[in-house]
């Protein structure tokens, strides 16, 4: 035993020297950056040629703006300015008859969206300049009400994006979020929903207590949220039923992509620990909630599931400061020990993680030089990459289904707003405005 | 034994590394993290382990029939949690049912009891009350609650605005439960104390100075007296 201890001590000191010296000599932190920009494809949108419609020209002007926004902010294409010379190359209504491919090649335009309206139906023909081909899409019936028709336009632009770039667009997504605003007694917080461009915002949960942390059930089966209506925070579905029935407080819920399990933080055991609860197809509790992680003097927060539902990433300060760990959600009859694996090491105060739907990335908020920024952890390379900069705090990043866009909220003295951002182009786009603090987005 | 030495290596490297690169606040955070690793390794030398264990039998899988959730196997966790961090289940009664007052019916203590139910405060990222005056007040609060058995208490946990809203919701939950544990350990019936976490949603000080943050890192109290 004595000689074994001596050997271990010798190894100990050698390890100290071998690890410490390189740190002192080359003590720089390596930061990996994503490529600075994706080369965007130039797209031309014609003016909407109206052949027969009773709707006002201002309505068509606004509809054009909706189209331009969707196409110009999808992360793949940019909309070039309209040109009378290029407009004159078309012959309406048969836009295919005289399409001058050479003129468009000369203008370095890759795709042309030719738009016209017949009898209140929007017709779109998309030209692929390089391939010298075109496709006419199914007509979109217009009601003349922008709040309805813009949704149809979103679906149309998403379908076109799928054809052109192979990635489903995000224009037709809905965004859930909370709006916090002052009232006579202090503060109120309601759940709202809007389109992915910030339009059509409407309240979904009002007068049901202080509400935060909304999220969609997978498969368009409604949504859930946290409310303090009974005094303690509990998790509810959109019908107002409690998703989890436990004593104490429940908060920070996350439902897996299969829709059959919810992870959340609760103090039912006397500490803010990580629990899971199985759900049936109707979103009702099945069996008892299960405690899956606790640690001495530690606070756990913000679980998020991997796409296959077998792992949970969550926040814990068990090692001193909040960092993000990954835990296997094992078969409850397994006898193997489970131990969370530390993911985020570069910065402190890493919070609000969200797992991408392809399982390859995790977004989170990290404090960098005193400001909370959005970062992405890449599971393939094991590296951490910055997405945002700037003086405002940013948190609650959530992935769009295309695994390229994030939505998050800022926090500053001026208020909290919702932003979209492409993780490579890194051009933040504010989509919310108006009174109140918009937070906890989800789509 | 080899694992223990490796953990010791990590702890010492972290401690030594701090002097090379970081500013003072980051250095302190590194010391805390390294200290945590060293503490765990020393505990491991003494036979304690903090790893959570999954269940080992069908009975544990189903859980005791009167338990509302399936707990982690507390065999090792019991040794790890000490003092005010020991697990303390929530009150048996559900607010608003079977004679238990609804939480919305609780109210701020009257003027005559304000000094006894004064808010207590926390250090940054901490969930324990360290101020001796406030700790003494909690002891006196416990005495009052023991003598007045028909008084129920709600402990509200709050955080300042510097960390994220989601993490602060959990940290405030920790603070409220710490105060509850403290009162129970001083003899108060655990079934008469409820906890609510408000995170950083309800600040009392709107500014951005250290004194504002300190005011917001607090637990407040509401009571209900039959």
- Main sheet: strand order of chain B: 2-5-3-4
Radius of gyration of chain A: 26 Å
Number of strands of chain B: 5
Q: What CATH architecture of the largest domain in chain A do you see?
A: 6 Propeller
CATH fold-level topology of the largest domain in chain A:
Neuraminidase
CATH class of the largest domain in chain A: Mainly Beta
Spatial separation of the terminal alpha carbons of chain A: 60 Å
Identify the CATH class of the largest domain in chain B: Alpha Beta
Low-confidence stretches of chain B: 47-60
Question: Which overall shape of chain A is indicated by the principal axes computed on the Cα atoms?
Answer: globular
Helix and strand string of chain B, N-terminal first? HHHEHEHEHEHE
CATH superfamily of the largest domain in chain A: TolB, C-terminal domain
The fraction of residues in strands of chain B falls at 5-15%
The biggest beta sheet of chain B is recorded as: 4 strands, mixed
Q: How would you state the average pLDDT of chain B, rounded?
A: 81
Structure explained in plain terms:
- The complex is a heterodimer of chains A (443) and B (226).
- Chain A is an alpha+beta fold.
- Chain A has 2 domains: 41-165, 3-Layer(aba) Sandwich (Rossmann fold); 174-442, Neuraminidase.
- Chain A has 5 helices and 30 strands.
- In chain A, a hairpin with a 5-residue loop joins strand 14 (250-255) and strand 15.
- In chain A, helix 2 runs parallel beside helix 5 (146-165).
- The radius of gyration of chain A is 26 Å and the shape is globular.
- Chain B has 226 residues and is α+β, with helices and mostly antiparallel strands.
- Chain B folds into 3 domains: 1-48; 50-80, no CATH class; 91-225, OmpA-like domain (60s Ribosomal Protein L30, Chain: A, 2-Layer Sandwich).
- Chain B contains 7 helices and 5 strands; from the N terminus they run αααβαβαβαβαβ.
- Chain B has a 4-stranded mixed β-sheet.
- Chain B is globular, with a radius of gyration of 21 Å.
- In chain B, 36% of the residues are buried.
- At the A-B interface, helix 1, strand 9, strand 17, strand 18 and strand 22 of A face helix 1, helix 2, helix 3, strand 1 and helix 6 of B.
């Amino acid at each position: 035993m004595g000689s074994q201890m001596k050997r271990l001590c010798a190894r100990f000191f050698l390890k100290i020297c071998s690890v410490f010296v390189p740190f002192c000599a080359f003590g720089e932190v390596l930061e990996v950056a994503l490529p600075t920009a994706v080369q965007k494809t130039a797209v031309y949108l014609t003016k909407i040629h109206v052949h027969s419609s009773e709707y006002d020209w201002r309505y068509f002007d606004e509809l054009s703006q909706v189209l331009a926004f969707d196409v110009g902010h999808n992360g793949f294409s940019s909309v070039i300015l309209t040109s009378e010379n290029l407009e004159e190359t078309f012959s309406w209504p048969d836009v295919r008859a005289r399409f001058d491919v050479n003129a468009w090649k000369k203008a370095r335009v890759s795709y042309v969206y030719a738009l016209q309206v017949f009898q209140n139906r929007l017709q779109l023909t998309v030209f692929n300049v390089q391939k010298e081909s075109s496709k006419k899409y199914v007509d979109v019936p217009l009601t003349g009400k922008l709040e309805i028709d813009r949704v149809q336009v979103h679906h149309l632009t998403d379908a076109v994006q799928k054809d052109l770039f192979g990635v489903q667009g995000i224009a037709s997504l809905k965004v859930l979020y909370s709006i916090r605003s002052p009232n006579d007694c202090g503060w109120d917080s309601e759940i709202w929903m809007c389109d992915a461009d910030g339009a059509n915002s409407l309240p979904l949960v009002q007068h049901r207590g202080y509400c935060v942390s909304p999220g969609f059930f997978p498969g368009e089966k409604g949504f859930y949220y946290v409310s303090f209506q009974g005094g303690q925070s509990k998790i509810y579905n959109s019908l107002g039923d409690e998703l989890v029935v436990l004593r104490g407080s429940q908060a920070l819920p996350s439902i897996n992509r299969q829709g059959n399990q919810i992870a959340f933080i609760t103090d039912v055991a006397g500490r803010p620990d990580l629990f899971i609860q199985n759900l049936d197809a109707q979103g009702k509790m099945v069996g008892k909630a299960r405690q899956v992680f606790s640690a001495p003097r530690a606070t756990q927060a913000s679980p998020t599931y991997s796409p296959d539902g077998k792992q949970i990433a969550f926040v814990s300060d068990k090692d001193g400061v909040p960092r993000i760990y990954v835990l296997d959600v094992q078969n409850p009859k397994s006898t193997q020990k489970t131990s969370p694996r530390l993911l985020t090491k570069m910065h402190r105060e890493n919070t609000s993680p969200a797992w991408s739907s392809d399982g390859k990335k995790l977004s989170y908020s990290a404090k960098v030089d005193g400001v909370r920024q959005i970062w992405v952890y890449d599971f393939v390379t094991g590296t951490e990459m910055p997405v945002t900069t700037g003086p405002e705090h940013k948190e609650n990043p959530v992935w769009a289904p295309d695994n390229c866009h994030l939505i998050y909220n800022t926090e500053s003295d001026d208020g909290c707003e919702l932003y979209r951002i492409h993780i490579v182009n890194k051009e933040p786009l504010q989509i919310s405005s108006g009174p109140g603090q918009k937070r906890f987005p989800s789509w | 034994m080899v694992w223990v030495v490796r953990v010791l290596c990590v702890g010492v490297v972290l401690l030594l590394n701090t002097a090379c690169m970081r500013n003072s606040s980051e250095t302190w955070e590194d010391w805390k993290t390294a200290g945590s690793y060293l503490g765990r390794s020393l505990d491991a030398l003494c036979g304690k382990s903090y790893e959570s264990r999954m269940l080992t039998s069908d009975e544990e899988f189903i859980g005791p029939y009167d338990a509302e959730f399936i707990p982690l196997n507390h065999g090792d966790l019991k040794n790890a949690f000490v003092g005010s961090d020991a697990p303390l289940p929530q009150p048996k009664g559900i607010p608003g049912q079977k004679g238990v007052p609804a939480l919305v019916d609780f109210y701020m203590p009257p003027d005559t009891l304000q000094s006894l139910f004064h808010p207590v405060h926390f250090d940054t990222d901490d969930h324990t009350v360290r101020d001796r005056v406030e700790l003494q007040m909690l002891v006196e609060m416990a005495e009052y609650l023991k003598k007045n058995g028909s008084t129920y208490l709600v402990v509200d946990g709050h955080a300042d605005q510097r960390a994220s809203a989601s993490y602060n919701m959990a940290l405030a939950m920790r603070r409220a439960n710490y105060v509850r544990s403290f009162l129970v350990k001083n003899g108060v019936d655990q079934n008469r104390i409820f906890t609510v976490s408000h995170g950083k949603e309800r600040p009392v000080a709107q500014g951005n100075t250290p004194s504002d943050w300190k005011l917001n890192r607090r637990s407040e109290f509401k009571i209900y007296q039959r």
